[in-house]
Every structure is written in structure tokens, then in C-alpha cells.
Amino acid sequence: AKENGRNQFHFFAKSMQQQVNRRVELEHKLRNAIKNQELNLFYQPIVDTQSASLYGVEALMRWQLSDGSFISPEEFIPVAEESGLINEMGEWLIKQACSDIQLLNSNCDCQCMLSVNVSSQQYRLGFNAEILSTILNDTQFNANLLNLEITESILLDNDQAVMNWLQDLRATGAQLAIDDFGTGYSSLSYLRRFPINTIKIDRSFISDLTASEDSAVLVKAIVSMADSLNLKVIAEGVENNIQLKSLNDLGGQYVQGYFYAKPLPIDALQTWVNEHICR
Ligand code: C2E
Ligand code: CA
Ligand code: CA
Ligand code: CA
């Protein structure tokens, strides 16, 4: 038994060591990818289903290796957050996305919204309204079309510093959205306290929508709560017509998902926009 325990220990220690190695290696590769400009942006359309028009796009980071394969953001964003690299990556992203979508909007004379993810780690590392204002100025992007997506976790400790940070960001003209809504926490009081404009319902609820009565009840409750708080609701991860239909039946108006489009490189997005109505 003793011998067995020792083997198990060696097994765990080895696999932990392998995980650590993979992290360290990934961080090293990520630094090089930033230096060599191997990071890229894709944009996923968000559709207003009531008017069947393009409401906006979400910018999503992509890391393509020289062999053509992609490393998933689910893998490299956590590494970027832990290493602090997310700070410069995030600033680069907003700059690039504002300039891309500013051009798209002027090309097609439309008012497409731009959503970007802002990690809570960026708050800790100093991203703020002043930096954002400079970017908006440099890119000539209309601040009212910018949507900053944050996660619930940052709102939980009801911190005055977080409140100030968010209010300053809002004062630039940008809007705030809660990402992955419904997955994290149960306290909803922050929706009234903090200057939030939009809720994004997490994909897990949408994929369950047709199979689970509970998900439908939840989505319905979220939509009606958002309605009375004057918040927009965007449903993520709508993949088929059946999900779209049940979502619409529950009052969901804004939709992001493969059913309409996958995240696209900027050229493909421009083509997509040319073939659709935009706001
Ligand atoms: P997210 O912010 O919730 O982004 C939505 C994710 O859902 C994207 O995955 C998108 O491709 C995927 N998605 C959209 N519609 C569908 C659908 O119909 N079906 C399925 N199966 N998936 C769909 P992606 O691009 O792999 O990003 C994963 C996560 O990584 C994001 O989740 C976000 O948390 C993070 N992330 C991506 N880019 C950035 C970034 O630039 N900054 C930060 N901080 N996080 C990012
Ligand atoms: Ca997001
Ligand atoms: Ca999300
Ligand atoms: Ca998500």
C-alpha cells in the first residue's frame, strides 16, 4: 500500500509539473506572439432580431500559429491574465478594434456597436478611463458605440474604487455590459447599484433552452427583470432556428451566435455587413 501511495504521489507530482511546464512555455510563446504581432482580431455579429438588422459586433482575440492552427482564448487568456500580459493585449485590442469598426462604419454609413472584453485583471493593472479616452480620440471612434464587457465577479465586493472606475469609464460615453450573466453569482442587487446598460445571457442557458424547462424559466425571468431595469439583453450562443424561436417567444431581442455568423476576420465581416441591414 505504501509503495502504491508513493507511485500515486509521483503520478500527481509529474502531471502537476507537466501543467506548470505547459503554462511557462505558453507564457513564453505568448510574449513572442505579441512581439511578432501574431495576435489577431475576429468579429462576431450581434443581430437585432426585431428589425433583422446588425446591432453590433464583439471583438474576440485570436492567436494563430505559423502552421495555421489556433490556440484557444480559453487557454491563452488565463495565461495572459496571470502574467499581466493582458494589460498591453487589451489596450492593443481596443485600439485595433476601434479603428477597424470606425472604418467599417464609415464605409457603410452605419452605427455598428463594438463590444470588447475587459478582464478584471485589467482593472487591477491600471486600464482606465483616461487610457480609453486617448484611444477613442486617436481612432476617432464614437464612444457611444462602444460596449465594455465585464464579468460579475468584479462587482461583488461592492468596492467604491470599482464603482469610481466604472463611472469614469461610463463618463467617456462608453456603455457597460455584464458578460456570461447567470453563471456566477446569485446577488442581483449590483444591477441597480452599478451603471450597467446590458446583460449578456450565457451560452449554457441557450443550449439548454429547448431541453430544460428550468433554463426557459430562467431566461424568461432574466428578460423580464432586464426589461423593468431598462437593460438590454443579448443572448449568446444561439446555434439554430429552434433556439432562436424559443428565445424570441421569451422576449429575447438581441442575438449573438453561430446561427447568424461565427466570429469573422475584418474583411469577411465587411462582406457580411454589405449583405445585411445595419443600424
Ligand atoms: P465570451 O466573451 O463569452 O465570448 C463568446 C464566446 O462564445 C466566443 O468564444 C465565441 O466564439 C463563442 N460563441 C459565439 N457564438 C457561439 C455559438 O453559437 N456556439 C458556440 N459553441 N460558441 C459560440 P471564443 O472566441 O473562443 O472566446 C472564449 C472566451 O475567451 C470569451 O468568452 C472571453 O471570455 C475570452 N476572450 C476572447 N477574446 C478575449 C479578449 O480579447 N479579451 C479578454 N479579456 N477575453 C477574451
Ligand atoms: Ca464577451
Ligand atoms: Ca459571454
Ligand atoms: Ca463565455
Automatic annotation (TrEMBL):
<feature type="domain" description="EAL">
    <location>
        <begin position="23"/>
        <end position="277"/>
    </location>
</feature>
<protein>
    <submittedName>
        <fullName>Response regulator receiver modulated diguanylate cyclase/phosphodiesterase with PAS/PAC sensor(S)</fullName>
    </submittedName>
</protein>
